[in-house]
Amino acid sequence: MEKKTCLSLLVENNFGVLSRISGLFARRGYNIDSLTVGTTEKTELSRITITVTGDDQILTQIKKQLNKLIDVITVIELKPDDSIIRELVFIKVKADDTTRSQIVEIANMFRANIVDVSRESLVIEITGTRYKIEGFFEMVEPYGILEFVRSGDTGLQRGGKILSH
Amino acid sequence: MIPLLASKLILKCLERENVEYVFGYPGGALLPLYEAFRTSPIKHILVRNEQTAPHYASGYARESGRVGVCLATSGPGATNLVTGIATAYLDSIPIVAITGQVDRALIGTDAFQEADITGATAPFTKHSYLVQNAADIPRIIREAFHIASTGRPGPVLIDIPRDVQLENVKTGLTYDKVDIMGYKPNLNGHSGQIKRAIKKIKEAQKPVIYAGGGVVLGNAQQELLAFAEKNNIPVITSLMGIGAFPEDHPLYCGIVGSHGYKYSNVVMNGADLIINIGARMSNRATSHLTKFEKDTDFVHIDIDPAEIGKNMETNIPIVGDARTVLSELIQKDTVTDHAAWLAAIETIRIENPLVYDADPPCSDLINPKVLFKDMSEMTSDNTTVVGDVGLNQIWSALYYRIIKNRRYYTSGGLGTMGYSIPAACGAAFATLDKPKEIFIVCGDGSFQMSMGELGVIAEHQLNVNIILITNTKLGMVRQLQFDNYGKGHYSGTDINFDIDFMKLAEAYGIKSYKVDKNADFNKVLPEAIKHQGPTLIQCQVHPDFIRI
Fold first, then answer.
1. CA A94 to CA B12: how far, in whole Å?
2. What is the pLDDT of residue A121?
3. What CATH number did the domain enclosing B497 receive?
4. How many Å apart are CA B58 and CA B21, to the nearest integer?
5. Is residue B182 part of a domain?
6. Average model confidence (pLDDT) for chain B?
7. Which of A20, A61, A74 sits opposite B122 (nearest CB)?
8. Which domain holds residue A24?
């Protein structure tokens, strides 16, 4: 059965590491839903969060193949129950004098921020789980979504556990 | 510390890794390194086309058990290495490929002879480096050899810009101990899984050991023999596993797969436990294994965790080195006999015999199956046979017997034509000081892919014997065309020119023979073996002889 899974990787910041990882997905035919990368508390290491869709067999292969890459130090699966997974989204919604206050009210309910206002549009910044963001989209959709950009999932394990080598 | 030119440092680092030979081809981006070669004890062997250089390194590595090294300049030199690197990757052969690169400031500008070779080879290198700082050279070279030769072996590429080779380095030969955060291969099998495997081995009525290239690469032949004998378990190999088990042993059960023996496939299909040691169960090996009983158990021992469960569902995975895990298994208390199963196998063997007969017109010329059978009787126990790709490969794999210290090498995974001549030369360089008989087996197609390397054979008077099977066809593709489309549906598989291979060999000063009868082959073979220096025996086979 196909499902979405969020993987968290600790990698060495070496030349070409990102292309090695994305290349692995491309040539083995695995689908990446999203990929985010950023620095860590150690300058020589980076953290990558990848969301993938596939069945258990594919997911196991992905983890094993990622682990085979020399630059990859650790691969873990961020399970929804014991980790925090969030995404940042900017949405540009059509808004005029008649609809603006309604949209702002919806945004407030979702603890989203209005980060840009113009006469015919609003840009809303929202952070949250996939479900919260889907819910927000559903609410503002009738007003007209002009464009949006999603950062892709990023996450951490809950509690004292840390991803280290 | 006196500063050292990086190009000299590179060769010092290679010396530290006990490199004897580098198989390479020079060019502009490698001028500093080649200048350093003049005063280095490392011998540079000039290949005749970069495409063959990784195969030399591969043959050298397989014969010596060490890392093979090849070298090419930037751009076209580097891209010419690509197929050979992929060939080594698919067969897990430890090689280090070093390429020149344009100056750092020119990278990314489409400079003359610039190619992104780390990018191009990423899918089939175990790892690669672009050296951006000469001070990193000692660490990178040490790591490259470590990564290539440990765990599941494979090719590692080091791309070195020309201006890096010209830097002066003060660090010297520092960096001894390798410590790579993300690379810690696991050698010992998990004790819980070993316990489960032992339980299955005790319970099994019809067990089979399926031995792959991992047994050969891991030097686990002695342990496999001891384990199989202790438990009376028959051993089947893959194409890459040839040499894992002596072919004259009563427990030996042949080669499996679409190009294996029929009886081996029947035996494997009937097993209730398959103990896979270092084989990836590729589509070539398993295409004739569709009838597994539902309750067949799979134990898979492999040093690469990603191989386990990739092509075949496994209920007992054991990640570890073949030799280490087999040693652990031998120590456990299992002695099984399987007399009934072995008797059943004997019946299967009798019902599915190897067929050597041929009808006219095929029988008018050389029968290649008989040729390799006869060659088994007439060659020493130390013979290395390097098969190319095609019918010549399958005939030599199936009918030449690998016993005692004999070895069989071929491009099993990628199926790269043109492999045999350079790989055998690499093996010959590894055994220059030992009496070893090295045979190249190729067809007229594969021979022509690498025949430029006759120059290296002649130059170094390598003791190699070329068994050139000619039928003026690309035999294996022709066989596939026959099987898929019917008789006469041949396309692009005729070699429409009858080359005078005798004259060609003569041009290189290589002693040559041409035979079209098995009896004549048997007459000239001892002469060729006795001859000091290279020989070529052209064996004429009828184009319609396409059966394996």
1. 67
2. 97
3. 3.40.50.970
4. 12
5. no
6. 95
7. A20
8. 3-78
